[in-house]
Design brief:
Blueprint (H helix, E strand, L loop, with lengths): L3 H11 L3 E6 L9 H4 L11 E5 H17 L7 E5 L6 H10 L3 E4 L6 H10 L4 E4 L4 H7 L8 E4 L9 E2 H6 L15 E6 L9 E5 H15 L6 E4 L6 H13 L2 E5 L4 H10 L4 E4 L1 H12 L15 E5 L5 H10 L4 E8 L4 E6 L13 E2 L4 E5 L12 E6 L6 E2 L3 H7 E2 L2 E10 L5 E6 L4 E3 L2 E3 L1 H8 L5 E11 L3 E10 L7 H7 L11 E4 L12 H8 L3 H7 L1
Helix pairs in contact: 1-3, 3-4, 5-6, 8-9, 11-12
Length: about 550
């Protein structure tokens, strides 16, 4: 069944209950968070907005009918270019209700990347917000297929129509478009950490699978409150929220990642489940360690689960977290946009003793670790992780060669190198394309990164291969220090004496480690910056 049926159900059974809250800390003006608890005035217009299930469904139906009135039909593609906001999910569901495909887009895209992705996905409609007006204006004459443009916000530009104005005049009745599990539902774009984004096509059954997997893994009930911070354009954030959809529970969209904003929102909104990225966990712990925040200032007793995904998680970081929050359940989730986001592998809250592993096959998923001939490797040996389940993509849209390279008989070859222990738990070793080959020896950067993150002065670290005439490649560690920390190259080299000699970084640079909105290290950017000949030599002398 399509996930739109669950929205209709929730509106029918729980229509007056709040389902979504948007918190925008930047709009708190001069008042403190606690002062807002005493105010019942129009501050909610910008600082805190909320929506009921009935409102959610009504807005989705109105937008669906608006799209249909503009000639959108089943199979068309409608792009969403918005920051996280209360309008995001009703727009997404409105698109699905027409039988069209929702095409969420990365808010960091440049104008040229927006144009490329709109053309690649054959989009005919674009929904965008005020943050993107300039970028859309730059390309509006070069996206001829995009004949309809809706603007979400105030001061609608001349080259678009107001979403609020036009949808308000449309009926709020369900348009009644028949949908099947096999119908195309959405196109997501790969994160681009290994090259230019590919368009990933998913059917409605994959979206339904994400709902079931998330709720099965984390046991959401109607009493839970989920805090969503990552961008909704990415499968990770949205598919975790699908657990709230299935359980008809409340979710909070927080527009900001400062540690004090996160803890205040958990406290004030009575949040029970939070999905964090590694850098945010690090920031929260560091801020608490420095005494800038005090846990006793917040109501955190209801917070039952913290889980992480999108990247390898250093075991040392979770040990620190458990020292601060010993009562928390912890889970980690592994997934790809090609597997409809997190959940094809997950640790499980009952397996905290296996911290460091990404876990076991998720609900209704299979996993295998394969050699270069795509044959299973023995336990303990490194190979490529392959997954099979109901959330695997249909294809890379309009890219048959790329599809055939990663799909075979329902198996998705992830490009991630992994190993499996004797208990069946899978450990991520590295991206296949990130493996460094030094003098014929395979070196997996994640192993070195995890080791270096245990250093007291290290906030973040990325290890890449640096071209070398003699060895082919050598290891370069880019290290981002914690605020105020003192650390030298010699300190790092002394710390690395506990590593095997061949794993010790040959070059060390202290600099910022760039990550994309889903928390993944942007290694192509680092390679471009540091593997460019004279630039490298100048920076590593």
């Amino acid at each position: 069944m399509p996930i739109t049926d669950f929205l209709e159900r929730n509106a029918r059974l729980y229509g007056n209950e709040v389902c979504l809250v948007e918190i925008n800390p930047a709009e708190q003006t001069s008042r403190t968070w606690r002062e807002y608890e005493l105010i019942e005035s129009d501050h909610n217009d910008r600082y805190r907005r909320e929506m009921t299930w009935e409102d959610f469904n009504r807005k989705s139906n109105r937008f669906a009918n608006l799209l249909l009135s503009r000639g959108v039909k089943k199979g068309d593609k409608v792009a969403i270019l918005l920051m996280n906001c209360l309008e995001w999910l009703p727009i997404y569901f409105g698109i699905l209700k027409t039988g069209a495909l929702a095409v969420p887009m990365n808010y960091r895209y440049t104008a040229e990347e927006i144009k490329y992705c709109l053309n690649l996905a054959d989009c005919t409609v674009l929904v965008f917000g005020p943050e993107f007006t300039g970028r859309v204006e730059d390309i509006v004459d070069r996206i001829p297929k995009v004949t309809t443009r809706f603007y979400v916000g105030e001061d609608c530009p001349s080259f678009a129509d107001s979403y609020e104005r036009y949808s308000a005049y449309c009926t709020s009745k369900n348009p009644g478009i028949a949908l099947s599990d096999d119908d195309d539902a959405a196109i997501y774009f790969s994160s681009g950490t290994t090259g230019f984004p590919k368009a990933i096509l998913h059917a409605h059954r994959a979206l339904m699978s994400a709902c079931e997997t998330e709720q099965k893994h984390h046991g959401q009930t109607r009493e839970d409150v989920f805090l969503c911070i990552p961008p909704l354009y990415h499968t990770g954030a949205k598919m975790h929220w699908f657990g709230s959809l299935l359980s008809a529970s409340r979710a909070v969209l927080l527009r900001g990642v400062k540690p004090e904003w996160i803890l205040e929102t958990v406290s004030r909104e009575k949040v029970t489940i939070v999905w964090l990225l590694v850098p945010w966990v690090q920031d929260i712990l560091d801020t608490l360690d420095r005494g800038e925040l005090k846990m006793e200032d917040y109501e955190l007793s209801q917070w039952r689960l913290m889980h992480i995904g999108a990247q390898p998680v250093p075991p040392s970081l979770i040990r620190r977290w458990k020292e601060r929050f010993p009562e928390h359940l912890y889970d980690t989730n592994y997934g790809l946009s090609e597997s409809i986001g997190p959940g094809c592998v997950h640790l499980g809250v009952e397996n905290i003793h296996k911290v460091g592993a990404i876990g076991v096959p998720g609900y209704r998923w299979e996993c295998s670790i394969l050699d270069e001939s795509r044959q299973p490797v023995p336990a303990g040996e490194v190979g490529e992780l392959a997954v099979k389940g109901p959330g695997v993509m249909k294809c890379y849209y309009k890219d048959e060669a790329a599809t055939q390279a990663v799909l075979n008989d329902g198996w998705l070859y992830t490009g991630d190198m992994a190993r499996q222990d004797e208990d069946g738990f899978i450990y991520l070793v590295d991206r296949k394309k990130d493996v460094i080959i030094m003098g014929g020896e395979n070196i997996y950067p994640v192993q070195i990164e995890d080791f270096l993150r245990a250093h007291a002065a290290v906030k973040d670290v990325a290890v890449i291969g640096l071209p070398d005439k003699r060895l082919g490649e050598i290891t370069l560690a880019i290290i981002e220090k914690k605020e105020g920390a003192e650390c030298t190259e010699d300190d790092i080299r002394d710390f690395c004496l506990d590593l095997p000699r061949y794993k010790r970084p040959k070059k060390i640079i202290f600099a910022e480690v760039p990550r994309n909105p889903t928390g993944k290290i942007e290694k192509p950017r680092l390679r471009e910056k540091y593997c460019g000949g004279s630039l490298v030599e100048a920076q590593i002398q």
